[in-house]
Amino acid sequence: MAFILDLIVMASFFLLFFAVAFLPAALGSDSKLSGSEEKWVIIVLLSYIPFVPFLFFTLWTWRGQSIGMIAVRIEVTDRDGEPLSAPRALLRALVWPLSMLPLGIGVAPVLFDDERRALHDMLAGTVVLELP
To answer: Which helix (H) or strand (E) holds 77?
Structure first.
C-alpha cells in the first residue's frame, strides 16, 4: 500500500514538473515551441529523474519514512533498528530501481526472506518495520 501511495505522490510531482516545463509555452501566443522553449521543457522534465531518488533519500534520512510509509505506519531502519545514516539512505535510494526492473523481480525475495526484505533492502542492509 505504501508503494501505491508513493506512486501517486510521484505522479503528482511529475505533473508539477510537467506544468512548470510547459508554462512558457502556455503563456506564449504561438502554438509551436521555440528552440529555447524546447530546451527548457527537456531540462525541466529530465530534472525529474534525479529528483525522485533525492526525495526518497531526504525523507529516509530525515524520518526513515517516505510519504506512503508515513500513511501506512511503517519505517525503514538499518538491521539493528537504528535510523538510516545518509550513506545508507542514499544507497537504498539508488539501488531501489534494481528491485523494480525487470517487472519488479527484485521484490520477489520478500516472499522467501525471514525479514521480508526486497533486493534493495538486502543490498543497503535495511529492513522495513511496522510502527506500534
So the answer is: strand 74-78
**Domain ranges, ordered by start, for the chain:** 2-130
Tens of each residue's pLDDT in the chain, 132 residues:
888 999 999 999 999 999 999 888 777 767 677 788 888 889 999 999 999 999 999 999 999 999 999 999 999 999 898 999 999 999 999 988 888 887 788 888 888 888 888 888 989 999 989 988
Phi-psi map region of 36: left, alpha, beta (phi>0 left; psi -120 to 50 alpha): alpha
Read off the C-alpha cell for 84: 538510516
CA dist., res. 87 & res. 128, Å (int): 17
Cα angle vertex 131, ends 126, 132, to 5°? 145
Q: How far apart are CA 39 and CA 37, in angstroms?
A: 5
